[in-house]
Design brief:
The structure is a homodimer of 562-residue chains. Chain A is of the alpha+beta class and 562 residues long. Helices cover 52% and strands 11% of the residues of chain A. Chain A contains 14 helices and 11 strands. Chain A has helices at 72-77, 81-88, 93-104, 129-138, 156-162, 174-177, 180-184, 253-266, 286-305, 313-320, 326-337, 359-416, 422-492, 498-557, and strands at 3-7, 26-29, 38-42, 48-52, 56-59, 198-203, 206-209, 218-228, 233-242, 249-252, 350-351. Chain A has a 5-stranded antiparallel beta sheet. Chain A has a 3-stranded mixed beta sheet with strand order 7-6-11, with helices on one face. The termini of chain A are far apart. Mean pLDDT of chain A is 79; it is low at 62-165. Chains A, B: Residues 73-86, 140-163 have a biased composition (Polar residues). Chains A, B: Keywords: Cell cycle, Cell division, Cytoplasmic vesicle, Endocytosis, Membrane, Mitosis, Protein transport, SH3 domain, Transport.
Chain lengths: 562, 562
């Protein structure tokens, strides 16, 4: 019998070889082994291709013959306590981590000064924001997330046969990879320093991240072109000035990229804002530099606004370490890469509010948010397309139309100038001026999108990145809830003791608090950002139409003496 | 040997069967007999087809064998005084006129109440402004213009053989048809009443029509649909109220049409403004009625602004005769149709300034004006096309773009409304309002051309009509000047006596004065009209952009409470 899976989310194919799947669509898999985070299979339309492994759940209840003797349902009825215990006490997680860190950072310390960003070719580009998202799903930083247990990819099959009490068989689901499962099952362990404690408090609208008591911002100025190896290599350096230190540091895109990888690794249920996409060609063109700088400013704004991200060590190191102190930089870099409090262990650092949440209410909130993100993603996509097209029309069509009108007026005035009589001179000049005014207005239209529509597109790009992060975050939370339900069932059937269940509940509560706090934060910055951006847009539009009006008023005056 | 002709003006073919000709192009004619004002022939590219007879002059100096024994050059050297005398004393011109008047008015008195306008079919439409111009060239009213002599179409051939001293052999040239030639040759005669006298005075810029001492205007209001024959026939009636009588009269389009025909017939070197074109279908649609009314208002404005047209009897009859007094109307109508002071005789009514003009200077002015009209015609054509396209773009494309933006904002606000938290309600409403505002702005764009671009197109249409009149007017004046040159040559060669030459000079001076006065008037109303229209356009544009700004300012305020 074929191995079947159910799509958990919509996935739209963006590259050759991929197939689109719809939420709840039943898919046929060729193998339960993923290829770098992708499954190969056939969708319900019979289209064959790849889709992200984390977007689907494998269906086991038809006792698929492709599984080893133990199917999921069998294991439910026969939980194996010892193997469960094995998992809750992982051995030497650090060593395992160390290995995968190096993969995650895409190079060793020795490579640090190489241009692994700036000299990258198109082939290893992460592509668009969407592409980045898939990349993060599959390999790279997130491969780390299975490694809080001693289980490695090589012995996954063996592990499955002995430890499937309530363990997800899809080793590549985000719930597993993020460390969410390991944490819920009590497998995470580590020493949490006081300074690392992250508090979730109960606010007016539910769980919230405790506010950053030392809020700060950070400017990004003057991207400058730097060269090294006697001008053989060149790169762009950005000047960062955090308000809490007032010390300027220079950072390159590759530093942002490295930081981003650390953050994604560390925070399973926090939506790390995407950094602007890489670009291989034309990196030093004014437009690109200006566009990337704007993207980095947006990114920085979201980083410093986030109560957890803003305060985390690796970000502070990035913001404050003197660029010229190579030694200090490397030390901080190594420390970040060895950080134990990542993935599953991150949840250990969270202090939830005293009263546990009602899981039913949590589930309903999460479901509501899932619907919200889909709607927002659709509308952001539509708005982005519209705004993009509107900008294009203003730069081309609108400009052309106004300039054609301007030219026609000028041609008329030139014809009129053939009449040399004194009483027509004033009119001829006024019409000529009108022609020039409309040509100028055409230019105004072409220049305007840069001022008002581009910032909207920048905002949408950032939020589209967040929206692409949420399926994974939701997946982690839902995975935890599922574990709670399973454990309740087990305890009713006498297959699990109450203490174990309470531990699972408690840990699920932590994940839920963190997720809801993150969602709350998302809504707050969303309202703040969209309000500010809409106001900015309208102000720019008003200034634009006033500028046109002013030009026309000036033009009209020319007729007074005509 | 082929009959050849030289093009006097550019002619652009507009209909199948016509060929375009360029000024000075040498053409081959199939016959010197025109077909309703058109010659059939071949242009220099070898294209065969029709072109207006009045746009060309037949070339006689190669002693074309197609001519009867007397070629133009032969006649130059052998002027035949008696035959010349024959022409200078036409017999019974009135009778001949009477006959052609009836043709010109397109119907007898008995037909007056028929719906020869309103029930006309597409087939007898005058077509576009350009088409109207050719129509006027060919047949209809202007056929009259040969009839101040006893010569009729039937004996043209015979006349030519006996009277070609300095007579244009093209009986269908405007110079001939307008009566210009007959007048220059002293063939016009009639009794000029004091009230009919038209003075040309020497103004600051040269000859000018004496100003109308009793200037007036006339409003055109409330076009209403009227029916007769128990509703079987319906027509639109316009309410005209001249300021000098303050008595409202009702006139139908056919009355305007009849008046127009009278005016064209009467005034050889006055540019009678074209009435709005006929339209067979959809005559009672709001848009059409409104458009025609606007066209008639423009027309009326040009009529009342013209020192000669405004005062002429037929126009005054049209403006003042009580619509219900059938008898008075018919009387005035018959009187206008029997008017002797038309065509050649019109020139008799003109009193030139005391000092005669310098013909060389006149020729240079006329040439300059000819160049001017061409340039203005080209630029008006271009502006009209641009403005028309600009209006279309605003009604379709611009509207669509702004409305798409509006819709996308609304869709975003709907997505945001899924987040039920209190702090986002204000923003959601504000974004929703922004969406509606942009949809409204889309409508503003669609509505605007009616307010600012349509009036420009109306103005251009009127002026394009005038520009289409000028080749004929220039032709008449140039014809007169040619006669002067010929006569000077003749007198040098002793073939003509000085008194005859002086008479020709005097009459050419009258035509020149009238032509230059008309050109002066044209420039003056042009400067007045274009100034007013450009000011109106800019005022409307300013109001438009202010309206948008106002809407956006209102929208921006919604965010204050958000």
């Amino acid at each position: 019998m074929a191995l079947r899976a159910r799509a958990l989310y919509d996935f739209n194919s963006e590259n050759p070889g991929e197939v689109s799947v719809r939420e709840n669509e039943i898919l046929t898999l060729y193998s339960e082994q993923d290829i770098d985070g992708w499954f190969e299979g056939t969708n319900s339309k019979g289209e064959r291709g790849l889709f992200p492994a984390s977007y689907v759940e494998i269906l086991r209840n038809d006792a698929a013959s492709t599984l080893n003797n133990n199917s999921c349902t069998e294991n439910f009825s026969k939980p194996s306590a010892p193997s469960f215990a094995t998992f809750s006490a992982p051995t030497q997680p650090q060593q395992q981590q160390q290995h995968t860190y190096q993969q995650a950072s895409q190079g060793s310390d020795d490579d640090w000064d190489d241009d692994w960003d700036d000299s990258s070719t198109v082939a290893d580009e992460p592509g668009t924001v969407g592409g980045r998202y898939h990349d993060f799903e599959g390999n790279g930083p997130s491969t780390y997330r299975v490694s809080t247990s001693s289980m490695s990819r090589g012995n996954a099959q063996q592990a499955k046969s002995s430890a499937t009490v309530s363990r997800n068989l899809n080793r590549f689901s985000t719930f597993v990879k993020s460390g969410g499962e390991a944490f819920v099952l009590g497998e995470a362990s580590g020493f949490v320093k006081d300074g690392d404690k992250i508090c979730v408090v109960l606010g007016q609208h539910g769980p919230e991240w405790q506010e950053n008591p030392y809020p700060f911002a950070c400017t990004i100025d003057d991207p400058t072109k730097q060269t090294k190896f006697k001008g053989m290599k060149s790169y762009i350096s950005y000047k960062l000035t955090p308000t809490h230190t007032q010390n300027q540091v220079n950072r390159r895109y590759k530093h942002f990229d490295w930081l981003y990888a650390r953050l994604v690794e560390k925070f399973p249920v926090i939506s790390v804002p995407h950094i602007p996409e890489k670009q291989a060609t034309g990196r030093f063109e004014e437009d690109f530099i200006s566009k990337r700088r704007k993207g980095l400013i947006w990114w920085m704004n979201h980083m410093t606004s986030h109560p957890v991200l803003a305060r985390c060590d690796v970000f502070q190191h990035f913001l404050t370490c003197n660029s010229t102190d190579e030694k200090a930089w490397k030390q901080g870099k190594r420390k970040a890469e060895k950080d134990e409090m990542v993935g599953a262990n991150f949840f250990l650092t969270i202090s939830p509010p005293a009263a546990p949440l009602d899981f039913q209410e949590v589930e309903s909130k999460i479901d509501g948010f899932k619907t919200f993100t889909k709607r927002m993603d659709d509308s952001a996509f539509q708005l982005n397309a519209t705004v993009n097209e509107f900008a294009r029309k203003q730069i081309t069509g609108f400009k052309k139309e106004y300039q054609k009108v301007g030219l026609s007026f000028r041609v008329l005035s030139q014809a009129f100038e053939m009449d040399q009589q004194a009483y027509s001179t004033g009119l001829n000049q006024a019409i000529s001026f009108t022609g020039e005014a409309y040509e100028a207005i055409g230019e105004y239209f072409a220049e305007q999108p840069r001022k008002d529509l581009d910032p909207i597109m920048d905002l949408l790009a950032l939020y589209q990145g967040h929206l692409a992060n949420y399926p994974d975050i939701i997946h982690v939370q839902k995975g935890a809830l599922t574990k709670v339900k399973e454990s309740q069932k087990h305890v009713e059937e006498g297959k699990m003791d109450r203490a174990q269940v309470e531990g699972i509940d408690e840990r699920c509560n932590i994940i839920s608090c963190a997720t809801l706090a993150e969602i709350q934060h998302f809504h707050q910055i969303r309202v703040r950002d969209f309000k500010a951006q809409m106001q900015h847009y309208l102000q720019q539009q008003i200034a634009f139409f006033q500028k046109i009006t002013g030009k026309l008023e000036e033009t009209l005056q020319k007729y007074d003496d005509a």
